[in-house]
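Bench log, entry 3. Co-assembly request; chain sequences pasted below exactly as received.
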Amino acid sequence: MSASAPATGVFCLGISTLDYVYSVETLPTRGEKYRSRGLAVVGGGCAGNASVAIARLGGRCWLATRLADDLTGDQIVGDLVREGVDMDFARRVAGLRSPVSAILVDAQGERMIISYSDPEVPEDTHWLPPVLPDGANAVLADTRWGEGALAALRLAREAGVPGVLDGDRKPPHPDLVATASHVAFSAQALAELSGEADPRGGLARLGQRASTWLAVTLGKEGVLFIENGEVVHTPAFTVETVDTLGAGDVWHGAFALALAEGQAERAAIRFASAAAAIKCTRFGGRSGAPKRDEVMQFLANVG
Amino acid sequence: MSASAPATGVFCLGISTLDYVYSVETLPTRGEKYRSRGLAVVGGGCAGNASVAIARLGGRCWLATRLADDLTGDQIVGDLVREGVDMDFARRVAGLRSPVSAILVDAQGERMIISYSDPEVPEDTHWLPPVLPDGANAVLADTRWGEGALAALRLAREAGVPGVLDGDRKPPHPDLVATASHVAFSAQALAELSGEADPRGGLARLGQRASTWLAVTLGKEGVLFIENGEVVHTPAFTVETVDTLGAGDVWHGAFALALAEGQAERAAIRFASAAAAIKCTRFGGRSGAPKRDEVMQFLANVG
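Structure output for the full assembly:
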């Protein structure tokens, strides 16, 4: 990428939230009262976090997301704009409540997430652009808005660019996996979809009937993906983990940006895994997403 | 109370929060992701809830509480003012974060509370009034601000009016129980303080060395209190419980108001238990606190 060329980028679609992150000694297990000594109020959500990662990595990023016209929505948009994300495709719906989450993080960095989305938020996609914006050389969609994800992945197909589905949850629409060019599942979603508890077996089973490139991200266990009909394993980089919150979303954002830039899948996995590893070494959810030079330095150091 | 006389009231001191109440199918037990289909953002906190109960029961109410000068604090104050609570003694501290809680309520009405208070909120009490406001014929303090509770209970002593401590948690200052004229513990706080798991035994043990009137509130198991050296049990009213959130706080507010009005303890318990019982039949935390005519009607019906 030359310095003078306009940056290539990713059209993202999905959820952006305001997260209330409570530090607790131990995660709650019973219907009692628990005290928190630390609170961070930060933007979050799969697509919101991935967008920030893309912007920090030097990519252009547009985020299509459904918000209410409330104070929470103002905070979500303001934060993303400050990060350099183009929010022209944020839809603000009157009279609803914007998505918020309560996230509890214990002393060991383990986290529990309770996410609220307004059930009244409209499914319709008529307000999405008819074609991808200039410079959007990939699409990334999450599973939180099925109709929207399908529309965005179709825009990618029509434009002939990669369309990545973040399969964090079981896809809410039956055509999503086939419409995407690339799907990266979570272990939980893959198990639900394939009916196999073992991610390797589940991936192999789905690979038999899909022409889409398929992977499953396993956190510190690395990534499994299918290449020439075989399940291939890539280990994660070993780092001192402080906070995994948002690391998966950073991975998806970096992976989609790498594909948008024309990197092959193996190189994109390496780039994304480095970005996610760096994030894990820093507290504060997506505020720990790295810049591109940090990723390049990290990759140079691991050799 | 004649219609023309100014209402008698309670000077309250303690915590007021903004609660994010998430409806969930089941309470979370592991470090995973949970979805919430319903969210209510409502004022809360022991003293805040008790203040609303007092105002709705027709009492005057002043609330001394420590908040930050943030948007959350604005929402907390605005909500209490709308309920008729005098917020002249709210202290707004610059640069801090106002108290917020995440409350998870499952399909059976069981709840889990994670409460955040800024650890930097100042302990000093110099900004409290030197004497109780005119018409404040009782004090109610919670355990969330030890120095403040002690100062407020001393004001009650100096004025010769009841000083009620809501012993929801183990009192944070050793002089609190002796300075109060009345303490109503939760079962958990009583067990911690007395070293006895059984509330009857714990209350009897504390009663041997305290001149303060002592009780323990046990939810649907009613109230235990000490009268003439004996532990006496009052059963709770039987109602169809929908939501217990804030019911204990409503009890404390109603109990303090009844004492302010000159009711004896047994009558005050009956009044408070009716108010709390009605609250339990209504969803939405303190928004279910009853008005006085509802309590009088309820008590007339149970005979």
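Chain B has nine helices and 14 strands. The interface with chain A takes residues 20, 22, 24, 27-39, 41, 71, 97, 100, 102, 104, 106, 110-119 of chain B (CB under 8 Å).
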